[in-house]
Specification:
It is a single chain. The chain is of the alpha+beta class and 92 residues long. It has a single domain (4-90), classed as HPr-like (Histidine-containing Protein, Chain: A, 2-Layer Sandwich), CATH 3.30.1340. 33% of the residues lie in helices and 28% in strands. It has three helices and four strands, in the order E-H-E-E-H-E-H. The chain has helices spanning 20-30, 51-56, 74-86, and strands spanning 4-11, 36-41, 44-47, 64-71. The chain has a four-stranded antiparallel β-sheet. Strand 2 and strand 3 (44-47) form a beta hairpin. The longest helix is centred in the last third of the chain and has 13 residues, at 74-86. The mean pLDDT is 95.
Length: 92
């Protein structure tokens, strides 16, 4: 496989924002891909496979997130994580 780079912009639509349960879902999903994924919000960046990093973003409802992925499965990883966020982390 070739090295890929991918990015997506998404908005947190979950009414409680990116709290512990959604952060856990994002981290677990990120770990399933052969890609390095980072999520940025308000000038802060978090490794997508780290629950603590994600919580430190303080991404509340309506926050804009930028997902960047690098690696053989970058596109698939970015699409999957963006989809999870757009679905309200499957909580709404």
């Amino acid at each position: 496989m070739t090295e890929e780079e991918s990015g997506r912009r998404v908005v947190v639509c979950n009414p409680k924002g990116l709290h512990a349960r959604p952060a856990s879902k994002v981290a677990k999903l990120a770990q399933t891909f052969d890609a390095t994924v980072a999520i940025s919000c308000n000038g802060e960046e978090a490794e997508a496979d780290s629950i603590m990093d994600l919580l430190m973003l303080g991404a509340g409802p309506g926050a804009e997130l930028w997902i960047e992925a690098y690696g053989p499965e970058a596109n698939r990883a970015a699409d999957a994580i963006a989809g999870l966020i757009e679905r309200g982390f499957d909580e709404i």
